[in-house]
Design goal:
It is a single chain. Helix content is 36%, strand content 18%. By secondary structure, the protein is of the alpha+beta class. It has 2 domains: 2-72; 99-219, Roll (Chitinase A, domain 3), CATH 3.10.50. A hairpin with a 5-residue loop joins strand 2 (135-144) and strand 3 (150-153). The longest helix has 60 residues, at 14-73.
């Protein structure tokens, strides 16, 4: 009897083994809970980090987009404020030319009866004189002499016109009126019908006397 009591008091009896198992189970449960808490904390931290990365990427992307949008909406440095964005670009002018050649001229109707070719220099260019047989580059506006109604203009086509001069590629009023004009000039050509397209309006050609304002931009 005394030996059993001694064994139990030493923790070697059935009761002592049960207690040890229970203690081991409790310790294992606590360890598992601690592990789960650590994993939860790590998972939360990882989630915060991912959100931070995504937010950073979103900010960078949108910042770049805003910059692009601002650049797209900002007016061009080469275009004057209030300029019509649909207007054709200004032509390339010869060196030393009057800046007025960069703007489409206003052409009015003529006065009286036009009987002969009349060349009026509006702006005198500083370049060489045009010679027959050269290829010249021009901007022009054409109107009916009697009412000033415009029928054609290179400005509306978006680029100057290039052609041979003095060789029959254009109407006689141009062949005769532009030879001798210096590059960089703006001239007004008042052309009677017989040196233009005649008086017959068939075929869509402008009939009768015509007035052209021509800018000579190059000759070669």
């Amino acid at each position: 009897m005394s030996e059993r009591v001694q064994n139990r008091s030493a923790g070697q009896g059935p009761g002592g083994k049960a207690e040890r198992r229970l203690a081991a189970q409790l310790a294992a449960k606590k360890a598992a809970e601690a592990k789960r808490r650590r994993q939860s904390i790590l998972g939360a931290l990882a989630g915060v980090a991912v959100v931070g990365v995504l937010v950073g990427v979103f900010v960078v992307v949108n910042s770049g987009k805003d910059d692009t949008d601002q650049a797209a909406s900002a007016p061009s440095a080469s275009a004057p404020a209030g300029a019509d964005p649909t207007a054709p670009p200004a032509p390339k002018l010869p060196e030393g030319a009057d800046p007025a050649l960069g703007t489409k001229p206003t052409v009015e109707a003529g006065k009286g009866e036009l009987k002969k070719l009349t060349v009026t220099t509006l702006i005198k260019g500083k370049g060489p004189a045009v010679k027959a047989g050269q290829q010249i580059t021009t901007n022009y506006v054409g109107v009916f002499y009697k009412d000033g109604k415009e029928f054609d203009a290179s400005w509306t086509h978006g680029e100057p016109a290039t052609f041979g001069i003095g060789v029959g590629q254009v109407i006689k009023g141009w062949d005769e009126g532009l030879v001798g004009v210096t590059v960089g000039s703006r001239v007004q050509l008042d052309i009677p019908a017989e040196l233009a397209y005649g008086n017959d309006a068939s075929g869509g050609r402008p009939a009768g006397p015509l007035r052209f304002v021509v800018d000579v931009l190059a000759a070669q």
